[in-house]
Structures are given as C-alpha cells and as structure tokens.
Amino acid sequence: MSSLLSLQGVHTHIGAYHILHGVDLEVPAGELTMLLGRNGAGKTTTLRTIMGLWPASKGRIDFDGRAIGGAGVKASTPDIACSGIAYVPESMGIFADLTVRENLLLAARGARSIEQIDTQRLDWLFTMFPAIKKFWLYPAGKLSGGQKQMLAIARALVEPRRLLLIDEPSKGLAPAMVRNMVAALRELKATQTTVLLVEQNFMVARELGDGVAVMDNGSVVHAGRMAELAQDDEMQQRLLGLSLASHQ
Ligand SMILES: Nc1ncnc2c1ncn2[C@@H]1O[C@H](COP(=O)(O)OP(=O)(O)OP(=O)(O)O)[C@@H](O)[C@H]1O
C-alpha cells in the first residue's frame, strides 16, 4: 500500500534539546496508523514536526509525494494545513466561551455561515458524534472532557481532509467515554480516512490500529501491523512495558 505520509530520518531540536533522532514513519493511505510509546518517547513532537510547528532540522517529510518538511523545505504550518492535514492536539484548541456550533463554524475555513457547511457532512458528524448535535447551542466549555474531544475531532473533519493527526483522544476519559470515542473513531475508519493516532491506552490502540509504529527515545523502534503486536505479549512487554495484567 502506498504511503500518504512518509518521514525519513527526521530530527527535531527544540532549543538546545535534541528530541527526535531520525524518525522513520510510513502512514499508508486509507489506514489508521497508531503511534505508541512510553511517556516522553517523542510522539507529540513527531505530530508537531509534521505540522511544521517544530522545524525538522534534518531528514525529510513527504505528504502525497510532495516535501512538506525537512532540511531546506520552507512549508509553513498554514501551508501544511491547507495541503489537507488536520491536527487535533492534546489541548484540543476549543473556544470555551463559544457555542459548539460556533466552534465548528470557525473551523470551516470556507464557510461564513453554518448553512454553507455541506449538510451531508454535518449529518455525518452528528451521527458520528451525537453530543455535537445535542449540545449544538451550548458553550463548548460546558461539555465533558470526552465531549470536548469529540468536538475537537469534529472540528478537524468539518471540511474534507486527506490526513488527520490526533493526539491521545482517550486521555483522562472515563471508561464509558473511551468506549464512545472508540465507536466514533471506528465510524471514521469505515470511511477510509487516513489517520495517525497517538495513544497510550493499548486497548484502544488494539481495537483501532491497522498499522502501528512504536517510538522510544526519539525514534521509531518498531513498525508493523497492529494485529501482530496485539498477539505478541513478549513484543508488547519489550516495546511498551505492558504486562498481561494491563490487558484486563
Ligand atoms: N518545549 C519543549 N522544550 C523542551 N523539551 C521538550 C519540549 N517539548 C517536549 N520536550 C521533551 O521532548 C521529549 C518528547 O516529548 P513528547 O511530548 O514528544 O513525548 P510524548 O511521547 O508525546 O510523551 P507523552 O506521552 O508524555 O505526551 C520529552 O523528553 C519532553 O520532555
């Protein structure tokens, strides 16, 4: 399968700190690729580097066959977003004082009113994230943590995107909300949207991932199929420090 996004030997420095040490990563078109790894492994830095929020000091980032990052490449974050990549950061970037509706409208670059957003697309978002419809006119700050995450992802999908980068959508959510999130992401997967998803929750990763890349210490130390990693306890233990007990 051809890669929509490809990172080759990507290094990132943040100030004096050398954080990414040659990241190689392939995100095939139409798949959900999980990016796993312990705290501090470099997952968020990888997403930020793809978006051009941190510049890659070495290596190369290609999106749909075009260089968007790396030494000598001058694509800005707005350029990268316009090329069709949406980023849902862990902080979500929601405007708490604005309504759910206004939050969605602000994310639709081309639309001046909600009527200008493709109604089919809006219906699709309502099906995937029922809370968006239910709390349509509520200030977004009143939503629960999980509902805010759903809104953040819906914002990223309000216009067609080629690739979605999502950072730990299950973080801090109660188990029932995690299940809702998994169900919504499964719906998204069914549309063959290409996704790179950072997760700490291995149960979520196992349910959703087609491919998987595991990071450690600023580089990718394993890449393969999620189904293989899900069946291999020894590999999980070695790469992620998971024990059998953590699967219960
Ligand atoms: N702004 C920054 N300045 C200095 N160091 C940073 C900065 N942001 C991240 N780092 C360091 O870079 C390393 C990778 O961090 P990153 O947030 O990418 O890891 P992560 O795998 O996403 O971890 P987590 O799961 O805890 O979010 C960590 O050691 C972190 O302390």
Automatic annotation (TrEMBL):
SMART domains, alphabetized: AAA (SM00382)
GO annotation, biological process: L-amino acid transport
PROSITE patterns, per database record: ABC_TRANSPORTER_1, ABC_TRANSPORTER_2
GO terms, molecular function: ATP binding; ATP hydrolysis activity; branched-chain amino acid transmembrane transporter activity
Matches recorded under SUPFAM superfamilies: P-loop containing nucleoside triphosphate hydrolases (SSF52540)
Keyword Membrane: yes
Keyword annotations: Amino-acid transport, ATP-binding, Cell membrane, Membrane, Nucleotide-binding, Transport
Domain ABC transporter: 5-242
PANTHER family named among the record's database cross-references: ABC TRANSPORTER ATP-BINDING PROTEIN, HIGH-AFFINITY BRANCHED-CHAIN AMINO ACID TRANSPORT ATP-BINDING PROTEIN LIVF
Family: Belongs to the ABC transporter superfamily.
Protein's name in the database: Amino acid/amide ABC transporter ATP-binding protein 2 (HAAT family)
Source species: Roseateles toxinivorans
